[in-house]
Amino acid sequence: MELVEEILNGDFRAIAKAISMIENDGSEKEELIDRIYPKCGRAVVWGITGPPGAGKSTLVDKLIEQERINGKKIAVIAVDPSSPFSGGAILGDRLRMQEHATDPGVFIRSMASRGHLGGVAGATTDAVKVFDAAGFDLIIIESIGVGQTEIEIIEVSDIVILVLVPGMGDEIQALKAGVMEIGDIYVINKKDHDGADKLEAEVNYMLSLKEGDQTKNPVLLTSAIHNDGIKNLISEIQIYLKNIQESMELQKKRKTRIKQEIKQIFSGKIMYEINKKINTEIMEEWAEAIYNGDISPYSFINKKVQTFLKEQK
Amino acid sequence: MTKKVRVLIAKPGLDGHDRGAKYIARALKDAGYEVIYTGLRQTPDSIVATAIQEDVNFVGLSLLSGAHKELFPKIVELLKENKADDIIVFGGGVIPDRDISFLKDNGVKAVFTPGTPIADVISFIEAQ
Ligand SMILES: Nc1nc2c(ncn2[C@@H]2O[C@H](COP(=O)(O)OP(=O)(O)OP(=O)(O)O)[C@@H](O)[C@H]2O)c(=O)[nH]1
Ligand SMILES: [Mg+2]
Fold first, then answer.
1. CA angle A226, A227, A229 (to 5 degrees)
2. Which domain holds residue A80?
3. Residue A273 lies in a domain
4. How many domains does chain A have?
5. Are residues B54 and A83, on separate chains, in Cβ contact within 8 Å?
6. Of the given ranges (A173-187, B54-68, B76-90), which has the lowest mean pLDDT?
7. Nearest-5° angle of CA A46, CA A260, CA A5?
8. Does 3.30.930.10 match the CATH number of domain B6-127?
9. ipTM rounded to 2 decimals
10. What pLDDT score does A147 carry?
11. Does the CB atom of residue A4 touch ligand 1 within 6 A?
């Protein structure tokens, strides 16, 4: 695979093609990932999440700017939702990051969710591997603005930065349910708006109720458009990463991530085999038998399961 | 999962209106394409870098300010220089008839003037 060599050399066109191949679930995807995998494991992954319009993309833009000064090669994966009706998408996150478009040390890739729930795309994890193998030091993932269930960002990143803004009103209430707990670092952006202090106090209060958590979660104020508070955020990220590395929490996280991932691949493949079996023709036959009252559903299906398992041996 | 068509809608040049570009971006989304939208005042270099990173199949350029004769061919040329001339370039905007054949001779695959039904753009994309 020529593509593998080119990716390892950091060739942008090859990286872009590889990510499309992953997104399209092409037949060569598995070989590609297996071939680059030995070169993975160096990059650090930051996940950025938070409600729509909180300033995530603007913040990423400023994080890139600062980390470029620090000499890092940076890749960004910016996820936006696909329309459930047309399957199309408008991918607008990179609009805020276009200043870095021609920087050879920055690669920005927009990604549509393509029906994947959870706030990231199905292709996100494997795209991270491509960037990692291609020599990027830092990979930033911007997830879809969160509601209640878009929390998969924790499964793909080493650290999650939850971006909030003042004036969300009851939204913080709604977020509390699950999403409010996923931050490693809490950023209150648009501190130039009224109510930032109040929100800071609320978040701190909420965090004080959290039990059994060893690592302290910083709460920081930023104003992304004014490039204010960015350096402080980066240094808090570094401290946090160092702490979880020393406490082995990071290593544990990464192993959990692999576990989740292989579980998904495994069950996906098993499902594929099962779906081959239960084509509509067979289903109709079964439904007919049950409809006629010849047999009862559970005993019938249990027998079928036994037969299926025997066939797999 | 199937292959998705990806389109970059970009606005080179200095004019400050992006209503047309946003309109086409939305229409293409509704037609099922993944549309990358990059906003106003993009340079040819940033458009080409974006097209490559995003691995788009098409670049749609929208322009009102009249610099299309320099900017559109420049983008085609830069794509070629970057071995990305498989990416198809089309354009739209207030473009006089006499310039359209010039642009087509210079690698712009299609030119849509204001009032072109969006269905024409979609059937152009589908035909490629
Ligand atoms: N006043 C103020 N506005 C900001 C700040 N940061 C971002 N904005 C503005 O907030 C709006 C949304 O910013 P984005 O960066 O696109 O927000 P986002 O969270 O990425 O939005 P989605 O990806 O659509 O969920 C833009 O108009 C920004 O200019 C800030 O610190 N202060
Ligand atoms: Mg965004």
1. 115
2. 43-122+137-246
3. yes
4. 2
5. no
6. A173-187
7. 65
8. no
9. 0.95
10. 66
11. no
